Amino acid sequence: MKTNSNRSFYLIPYAVWMVLFVIAPIVLVVYFSLFDLHGNFSFENYQNFFTSVYLKLTLSSFWYAFIITAFTLLIAYPTAYWLTKTKHKQLWLLLIIIPSWINLLLKTYAFIGIFGVFGPINKFLEMFGIGTKQILYTDFSFIFVSVYIFIPFMILPIFNSLDKMNPTLIDAARDLGSSAWTTFTKVIFPLTINGVKSGIQAVFIPSLSLFMITRLIAGNKVITLGTAIEQQFLVTQNWGMGSTIAVFLILFMVIIMILTGQKDKGAIVNGHNK
């Protein structure tokens, strides 16, 4: 009886945190989405979201999020696999994760200097007679910087899945004559799919709502749901429309989390396969 009361007591801070920082903001966003620009109760914002302008904006956001996630996965998976084969894998993993501790704004401004007209990349191009190129404020710079920032968040879950995978399953596949590609596609990748899905969650969902990187690196070349929310709140002062976009963004996030959720399998837990 005493144990149950202690558990209930320790749950209080968690419950308070959930109410204040998760439930309350969502309720406020939904509440403000039900009012138009003049403060009148209306579903006009939801009707406007399904117009061609916002639908194109949504498709554009999903497209950029897909590209960022795809490139991040293509880089992160081989890197995570290589890390599991190194001697000091935890040290290498730490070195890869450390850049994620640096303030995002500082990293973004660093890339502004790197990609700028007078930056080192353009200086390097001038050495070969190519001349100055407009690298900043392009789709390439936006995708490149986003992939760089999100790589650690993709590597970590994939590394954990690879590291806890039962190695005897790989040995068994090779003993049966499977090629390296067959072993990867039929054994390794399926058993690490949970890590891949966790990485997709950690990259795709934030990519949908990027606004600071979009503004500073891409300028007006790229518009996402995140920049649309920022514009509605800070520029047009249309809190209702901004909240409506945020409501749909939350729904998209929940759907993605549901689609990418799966139970563990093929891991070693207490000496047994899971």
Report on the architecture of this protein:
The chain has helices at residues 2-32, 44-49, 52-85, 89-97, 104-115, 120-127, 139-163, 167-175, 180-191, 193-208, 212-218, 225-234, 239-259; strands spanning 268-269, 272-273. Mean pLDDT is 88; it is low at 266-274. It has a two-stranded antiparallel sheet with strand order 1-2. It has one domain (49-273): MetI-like (MetI-like fold), CATH 1.10.3720.10. With 274 residues, the protein is mainly alpha-helical.
Give a concise summary:
By secondary structure, this protein is mainly α. The protein contains 13 helices and two strands.
Q: Which key features would you list for this structure?
A:
274 residues, two-stranded antiparallel ribbon, 73% helix, globular
Mean pLDDT: 88
Main-sheet strand order equals 1-2
CATH topology: MetI-like fold
Helix percent band: over 70%
How many DSSP E strands? Answer: 2
Low-confidence parts: 266-274
CATH class: Mainly Alpha
Largest sheet: 2 strands, antiparallel
Our Rg estimate from Cα atoms comes to 23 Å
- Assigned CATH superfamily: MetI-like
Strand fraction: under 5%
Structurally, the number of domains stands at: 1
Shape: globular
Topology readout:
Elements: H1 2-32, H2 44-49, H3 52-85, H4 89-97, H5 104-115, H6 120-127, H7 139-163, H8 167-175, H9 180-191, H10 193-208, H11 212-218, H12 225-234, H13 239-259, E1 268-269, E2 272-273
Antiparallel strand pairs: 1-2
